[in-house]
Amino acid sequence: MTPADRSTFDRLFAEVLSPAYGLALSLSKNATEAEDLVQEAALAAFKGFGTFQPGTNFKAWFYRILTHCHYYRYRRTKSRGEAVPLDEDLDLYLYRRTAEAGFHSQSEDPAAVLLDKLTSEQIRSAVASLPPEFQVAVALFFLEEASYEEIAEVLEIPLGTVRSRLHRGRKLLQKALWQVAQEYGLVGEGVAT
Amino acid sequence: MKPSRLSCEETFLRLDDYLDRRLDETERTEVELHLATCEVCAREYQFESRVIAEVKSKLGRVDVPAGLAERVAKRLAGA
User: Fold this and answer.
1) Contact B59 A124 (CB under 8 A)
2) Is the dihedral of CA B21, B27, B29, B30 positive or negative?
3) Would residue A157 be called left, alpha or beta, if left means φ above 0 and alpha means ψ between -120 and 50 degrees?
4) Nearest CA to CA, how far is A33 from chain B (Å)?
5) CB A21 to CB B64 under 8 A?
6) Measured between CB atoms, which of A25, A110, A174 is closest to B62?
7) In whole angstroms, what is the distance from residue A136 CA to residue A27 CA?
8) How confident is the model at residue B62 (pLDDT cuts 50, 70, 90)?
9) Separation between Cα atoms, residue B71 and residue B76, nearest integer Å
10) How far does B5 lie from chain A, in Å, by closest CA?
11) What are the pLDDT digits (tens) for B41-57?
12) Does B1 lie at the interface with A, CB-CB under 8 angstroms?
């Protein structure tokens, strides 16, 4: 790599480091794993910088590399993410759970009541528990407020696939959020606590 | 095109696309007309919308660990 290319890489990487770490944190079990993922992606991007087209979206390019590194690690460990039956009814999952738990009779804003009980770390762990094909789309949507088009660019998938992954992924996230709330004893079986 | 009246089920099928602002103007108006007149669907929409807003707000930006940029630079220097 020429000194000019190195300088360009350093500048572009510095601009994406913070959001990339946020994305990695939502895909990982903990901060150590997230940092490893960012380092791995940075190294891969550095080595492959010759394939980056100047003037195109470096952030999308780097996220694509980070996503590939994440998928690779996931395939290697296969430690997280349960297969979810496609026919499982997840429509309005949290709406129904919170109604059953009595949140709706306690507040005009039951969604906020539930989510106020959860910390950012607990919500991140719910995102990280999703099957990998949904994780990145969901993380980009919530963290970056990314558009369908931006998610499609990172994941290199058609817009229709982005739509279906996001819609299904958000439903899976609602189930994961409820499970996290139960694990931490923040909600009971039939009563809001 | 004149907006048509949607049933609750038809509205529900469009809810995610409505939340994501992916509907065209006619479809958007149809959903809004239904939500304005159906309390149950309006409550469901409000709930889904609040979940998205709350999760976005809670995830927000995170602080990069101190020294991460330096640790990455060190690793690249050895590459």
Assistant:
1) yes
2) negative
3) beta
4) 12
5) yes
6) A25
7) 7
8) confident
9) 9
10) 23
11) 999 999 999 999 999 99
12) no
Instruction: Give residue A78's pLDDT.
Output: 62
How far apart are the C-alpha atoms of B72 and A38, rounded to whole Å? 8
Q: Confirm if B20 and A151 have CB atoms less than 8 A apart.
A: no
Between chains, do A42 and B54 touch, taking CB under 8 Å as contact? Answer: no
pLDDT tens per residue across span A5-26: 889 999 999 999 999 999 999 9
Query: Which amino acid, A168?
Result: R
Interface contact B56-A17, CB threshold 8 A: no
Q: Using the structure block, give the residue that is written with the tokens 């994501």.
A: B20
Q: What is the pLDDT of residue A193?
A: 46
Q: Chain A within 8 Å of B48 (Cβ-Cβ)?
A: yes
What is d(CA A65, CA A161) in angstroms, rounded to the nearest whole number?
19
ipTM over 0.85: yes
In whole angstroms, what separates CA A29 from the centre of its chain?
Answer: 12
